[in-house]
Amino acid sequence: MGRLGDADVHAAFVEFRAKDTDKCLSAQCIYCESIRAKNTSRQRSHLLECPAYLNAMKEHNPQNPILEMSVNGTPTPVKTPKEKKRDHSTMIDVSGFQGDSSGSRAFPIPRPSLERDFQMSLQLNPNISVGPSIWGQRNWVSFISGHWNGRWGKGTVVPGGQEKQMVAPDLSTHIDTNYVLQTHDHPPAHIVVRTEGWRVGPRDILEKLMDPAQADEVDPKAYSFRLYIHMETGDQRYLHLNTGMWVGSGVRRGTEVIYDAYRVL
What local confidence, expressed as pLDDT, does residue 159 receive? Predict the structure, then answer.
């Protein structure tokens, strides 16, 4: 077993140019986030002393020669361990990248989690049929009002929001909405929201959801109503929303749509 190959060293770093005027690249360790000038020898030396990298290799790639080097200072052979079952929910196997001479290696990638962040209630006007398209029936829906509350605030929905629907032949419905939130602050902040997603399920269930008089009778578990959500504002108090990511799960109740939004962490 020789020294750690250059490709393995480079795989542990992200290269970038700190300033447009910089002539040389910088490299950031993906394990401890420390930054140094791009230099393979120095990057290899850093990995010898990086606890986060060494711990990851001990768990997921115990034959990595840098482990022996970190202890003895020389890349002497180590015993081949018993095959360890890998947790594929937190691991990926990287192999076959162009220019990768190291063959195959594994490294940990963080798994995102979800946190319930806010709930939205929207009151809708009746659908306006725009007519058929090559993809399906097009509908237009305007918003009467609404309200919301969550971890970072609460408020109302400004009247006049819009929803575009594309209803496929099997009644699966693609939804694309744009509307504005107003917070209960003084003075209030305004936040633009855009959602996109699908409402799918058995045809007889979807037919009932299109009729406000029957929508209340439908079990929410009988269909799937999922969204992804973007928000944007220039208000200094809520700038953190601009870089957030959310997914939502919704239900239809008469002329009302309610969804829970989960922040992706």
Answer: 96
